[in-house]
Amino acid sequence: MPATHGRTFLITGGAGFIGSHLGEAILADGGRVLAIDDLSTGSLDNISSLLDHPDFRFARASITDQVVLERMASEADVVIHLAAAVGVQLIVEHPVQTIETNVMGTEEVLRAALRYDCRVLLASTSEVYGKGSKFPFAEEDDVLLGATSRSRWGYAASKMVDEFLGLAYWREYGLEVIPFRLFNTIGPRQTGRYGMVVPRFVRQALADEPITVFGDGSQRRCFCDVRDVISAILGLAEHPDSPGRVYNIGATEEVSILDLAERVKTKAGSSSSIEFVSYDEAYAPGFEDMQRRVPSIDRINALLGWEPTRSLDEILDDIVAWERE
Ligand code: UDP
User: Fold this and answer.
1) End-to-end CA distance of the chain
2) Closest CA to 163 of 147, 143, 134, 149
3) What are the contacts of 263-268 at 24+ separation with CB within 8 A?
4) Which of 2, 126, 249, 256 could form a disulfide with 183 if both were Cys (CB 3.0 to 4.6 A apart)?
5) Residue 211 Cα: closest atom of ligand 1
6) Does residue 289 have its Cβ closer than 6 Å to ligand 1?
């Protein structure tokens, strides 16, 4: 884990799944954490073990609350901007909130960071690769989004605007901005409430309820352990040469969603059936899914020597154990 000792990190979305793991890692390394979260998808449960820590401070506020954001940014060395609308389900159901939170929130964060000269780590997403068909996805590849009539692509476009804006701050003002594209990230504390497949399957399996595979289950994903993701983010936060470029962060081991359902079922010792649900029924009519999504991690590997350390089977064992508790 890179050295965060003695430095102050502002984490937006600090009570979320990834934000809470990040806060924990920074505190464990002797850093100080200021977390801001409106608890729309994050929760106090995620940070219950951090709230009493002397180097942890939490504000329940939106990132568009300028007073809170400014005050926290004024104390920070590094801002890790994770606050965003997340989860395919949420994005399809609340397209206005998705676009506004992602674009306006990032504008506010960049402005505050510029004022107090903070380095900014900007969370983006593999969604920006859209329907690209050249695998693996590399940071300098062209992107191919679907029609504007499909809400899903509004999320991708809003995150692209965030990346453009961040890189523009770097070019025009010299602000140290590092956008990173997260691929599917999993681990303890992730909720299935907003559609994420692994926590949904694990909960369904443990309750012996049908495991809901959308489409025919042949679509494939690569799942990375949240702790590996965090060491990548903190590595980028520390490295002198990371600013001004986008980085993929993700695992490269592919699994089909049907295979995932079967593995989860076995690991949970479950008697669940596997139920196929059409995309129209699962999301919205005309919903477009990606058949594959695989990152090239050459860029971050060349800079930091980073690669995931944990296999899908190990991560699933952990999540099943955690959910059982
Ligand atoms: N998925 C599924 N059943 C569920 C939830 C998701 O089969 O209950 C599928 C989903 O359609 C997608 C994959 O699992 O093909 C990953 O979904 P998730 O929302 O976790 O991530 P993303 O679509 O952003 O890769």
Assistant:
1) 28
2) 143
3) 263/312, 263/313, 263/316, 264/198, 264/201, 264/202, 264/205, 264/211, 264/316, 264/320, 265/201, 265/205, 265/211, 267/205, 267/316, 267/317, 267/320, 268/202, 268/205, 268/206, 268/320
4) 126
5) 8
6) yes
pLDDT score, position 138: 98
Specify the pTM.
0.96
Q: Where are the domains positioned within the chain?
A: 8-254+287-324
pLDDT tens for each residue of 176-221 = 999 999 999 999 999 988 889 999 999 999 999 999 999 999 999 9
Which of 127, 152, 197 to mutate for ligand 1's pocket (most ligand atoms within 8 Å of CB)?
197
Q: For residue 127, give the ligand 1 atom closest to its CA.
A: 24
SS3 state of residue 150? coil
**Consecutive 10-residue averages of pLDDT for the chain (325 residues):** 81 97 97 97 96 98 95 98 85 88 96 98 96 95 93 92 98 98 96 91 98 97 98 98 98 98 98 96 85 97 98 97 94
Q: What is the pLDDT of residue 178?
A: 98
**What's the gap in Å between 61 CA and the centre of ligand 1?**
29
Tell me the C-alpha distance between 217 and 143, whole Å.
24
Ligand 1 binding pocket mutation candidate from 18, 88, 125 (most atoms within 8 A of CB): 88
Known catalytic residues are 155
Q: Which residue's CA is minimally distant from atom 17 of ligand 1?
A: 197
The pLDDT assigned to 1 comes to 46
Q: Smallest Cα–Cα separation from 283: which of 151, 139, 107, 135?
A: 151
Q: How far, in Å, is the centroid of ligand 1 from the Cα of 200?
A: 9
